[in-house]
Amino acid sequence: MTMIDPTARIADGAVIGAGTEIGPYCIIGPNVVLGENCKLLAHVTVNGHTTVGAGCVISPFAALGGPPQDLSYRGEPTRLEIGEACTIREGVTMNIGTVKGGGLTRVGDRGFFMNNSHVGHDCTVGNNVIFATSATLGGHCEIGDFVYIGGLSAVHQFTRVGPQVMIGGVCGVRGDIIPFGLANGQYAVLEGLNIIGMRRRQFTKQRLAAVRAFYQKLFHGPGVFAERLASVQPLADEDPAIAEILAFIDGAKHRALCLPANTN
């Protein structure tokens, strides 16, 4: 049964799914679609052309679907899509897209967004991510599945973060981070592989050994990086994770690769 507190304000045109609960002082705009069995606890604002998937729980003072923080935006009906079963804590902000960025900000399923984290315009965020307190994305970022971003860390606009990456706290991420990478430091550097995350994803000892050997050859072998990258291409057949890392590097768009310190 849908329950709406009498102090909430639901604009004409909004679609509220069955079983959704909207708590005190929430504001829902006319172009919003809330899926089934969501819970908006109190003081939540959802505006813009925004869709929220079923089973999401949204805490007080979250603001979803606000205009992009981009000076070129002129009120176009761009969108924000949030997947199912996300936990969105206090003060989280997620913005709609821009026309020049494709018009869509997309967030996947089962994300956990801690207080005051931010998803900027035109970002694509995968499934099962965790954004710790005040983790922030600039516009146009691409974040893979199972990514963890530590507290107070910020990802520069147009940066790609591959699947199963772990980013430490208080990091400034200015370069693309390879899938399965572990990045840390004030200006993030690649410290190795996210071995804990890989084990959680059921990587065997044999697979871990193969990917570790590949990583060492690519980032710490003899010669300059371009030469090493060319030499490890045949290793793509050894493990799907190696193939995924090489494809990610090959798909570079705007940012340089995040590398270990002192890499040639």
List the helices and strands and how they pair.
Layout: E1 3-4, E2 9-10, E3 15-16, E4 21-22, E5 27-28, E6 33-34, E7 39-40, E8 45-46, E9 49-52, E10 57-58, E11 63-66, E12 79-82, E13 87-88, E14 93-95, E15 104-107, E16 112-113, E17 118-119, E18 124-125, E19 130-131, E20 136-137, E21 142-143, E22 148-149, E23 154-155, E24 160-161, E25 166-167, E26 172-173, E27 181-184, E28 189-193, H1 195-200, H2 205-220, H3 225-232, H4 240-250
Parallel strand pairs: 1-4, 2-5, 3-6, 4-7, 5-8, 6-9, 7-10, 8-11, 9-12, 10-13, 11-14, 12-15, 13-16, 14-17, 15-18, 16-19, 17-20, 18-21, 19-22, 20-23, 21-24, 22-25, 23-26, 25-27
Antiparallel strand pairs: 27-28
Helix pairs in contact: 2-3
Protein name: Acyl-[acyl-carrier-protein]--UDP-N-acetylglucosamine O-acyltransferase
Function: Involved in the biosynthesis of lipid A, a phosphorylated glycolipid that anchors the lipopolysaccharide to the outer membrane of the cell.
Domain UDP N-acetylglucosamine O-acyltransferase C-terminal: 176-257
